[in-house]
Amino acid sequence: KAGVTQTPRYLIKTRGQQVTLSCSPISGHRSVSWYQQTPGQGLQFLFEYFSETQRNKGNFPGRFSGRQFSNSRSEMNVSTLELGDSALYLCASRELGEVAEAFFGQGTRLTVV
Amino acid sequence: GESVGLHLPTLSVQEGDNSIINCAYSNSASDYFIWYKQESGKGPQFIIDIRSNMDKRQGQRVTVLLNKTVKHLSLQIAATQPGDSAVYFCAENNWAGGTSYGKLTFGQGTILTVHP
Fold this sequence. Notes:
The structure holds 2 protein chains of 2 kinds.
Chain A: E1 5-7, E2 10-13, E3 19-24, E4 31-38, E5 42-50, E6 53-57, E7 64-68, E8 74-78, E9 87-94, E10 103-104, E11 108-112
Parallel strand pairs in A: 2-11
Antiparallel strand pairs in A: 1-3, 3-8, 4-5, 4-9, 5-6, 7-8, 9-10, 9-11
Chain B: E1 10-14, E2 19-24, E3 32-38, E4 45-51, E5 56-58, E6 62-67, E7 72-77, E8 86-93, E9 105-106, E10 110-115
Parallel strand pairs in B: 1-10
Antiparallel strand pairs in B: 2-7, 3-4, 3-8, 5-6, 6-7, 8-9, 8-10
């Protein structure tokens, strides 16, 4: 089975721009979560999508948004980029079930200049 | 934020030694715990998990211990190898609460360095 695929791997954007990151989950996984990883704050939960619906949201401003498509692929968008948005953005997918481990992609390294 | 990444704890061991990485979790309602390994340039990789109705679980060369009384989790790695060098994160989830779903709350991480 192919793992979680995130594109692009690296991205450089200018402050004020917007960006869209993509995540393809493991085949059969319907839950996709997004995390932001920075040296200062560590790994922080952004949101989770299941069946095209956002089920849970972390403590991030409204500039951070996401969506999920019918094939479970997900995108996250960050508008009006700030320097502090520079981070590794990680996507994780899970099967359904009471408890299921999350499999992470390699992440998208976003640098805002 | 919920996870502070400044000044990660470090653990340095010799190849062949046993390693113990500790984690204090925050939510007494958490009922599922996971250890992840993250190598440079990669996403976190699942190592082992444990539910709150257990206090110990063993995998291949790894053991996780859970002490709910003091909200403490530990990862033991036997016969540590240079390939085990990475950052190790514990993560918690409140599944039974019904509201956290896929939300994992991560600890700050511990840098493990294994010397040949």
